[in-house]
Design brief:
The chain is mainly beta and 83 residues long. The protein has a single domain (5-77), classed as SH3 type barrels (Roll). Helices cover 11% and strands 39% of the residues. The chain is built from 1 helix and 8 strands. It has one helix spanning 14-22, and strands spanning 5-6, 27-32, 36-41, 43-47, 55-58, 63-65, 69-72, 75-76. The strands form 2 sheets. The protein has a 5-stranded mixed β-sheet, covered by helices on one side. A 3-stranded antiparallel β-sheet has the order 4-5-6, with helices on one face. Strand 4 (43-47) and strand 5 form a beta hairpin. The longest helix is centred in the first third of the chain and has 9 residues, at 14-22. The chain is globular, with a radius of gyration of 12 Å. The chain starts with a strand and ends in a 7-residue tail after the last strand.
Length: 83
Amino acid sequence: MDCRVTLNINETFLDLLKTLYYSKTKVYLLIDDDGIARMEGFIVKLDEENVPPAYIEMDSGIKLAVKKVVAVNGTFLPEFGEC
């Protein structure tokens, strides 16, 4: 069984996404939106204050809620930690 790097229980990707946004680092995401999808690119907007829940906007124009993200640059939610 393979093990993956995961967030701690009750932790979200928001802090990691902020770091990647401010450092202008390319992100590789897995999104759970009625099925798992891949996405990559640069975050052009991160809004955690005006529109709950927090969301990001990618350079492709896609906006998505942070709560739909299941993996960022190889770090997974705990429930996706083993395969």
